[in-house]
Amino acid sequence: MKLSEVKSILHSLENVEFQLENGTFVPEHFHVTEIGTITKTFIDCGGTIRNEKVVNFQLWDANDYEHRLKPMKLMKIIELSEEKLGIEDNIVEVEFQGETIGKYDLSFNGKNFVLNNKKTACLANDACGIPTKEANQEVETSCCSPNSSCC
Q1: Which Pfam families does UniProt cross-reference here (predicted)?
Q2: Which of 68, 95, 99, 114 is least enclosed by beta carbons within 10 angstroms?
Q3: How do residues 109-130 score in pLDDT, each as one tens digit?
Q4: CA dist., res. 102 & res. 85, Å (int)
Q5: What number of helices (H) and strands (E) belong to the chain?
Q6: For the segment 36-70, what is each residue's pLDDT rounded down to a tens digit?
Q7: How many Cα atoms sit within 13 Å of 144 on the Cβ side?
Q8: Which residues pair with 60 in a beta bridge?
């Protein structure tokens, strides 16, 4: 979800609520402690240099149980970050403390923002040497079937 989508959704909400993909809610007294841009420059296993830029929200579960972040307050924090930091309309990534700091993609289910689990993936499948799922299935059926002599 891009930052512009978050801003658009905020206008229609009475409360800002985040929940994890498993349905667990971020405690309602959370704070947004940071909004910024994270830029990552890296090389994949195929040798391609890549650049990635995301807008980062950091959520913090503080011990001030009466705190509630309202949609327009979050909007003001976003607008301030755009003005002062030049934050662009990029994909939003959310950091939230579990056993360690987790990084999540963000979506909206019609009522709440959802922290979606991020997954790793190879960006250079053709250079990595990992066979595709279809190739693995062919090997299993042609070479290692119960009636074959290779196993």
Answers
A1: DUF6428 (PF20001)
A2: 99
A3: 999 999 999 999 888 888 877 7
A4: 24
A5: 4, 6
A6: 999 999 999 999 999 999 999 999 998 889 999 99
A7: 6
A8: 31
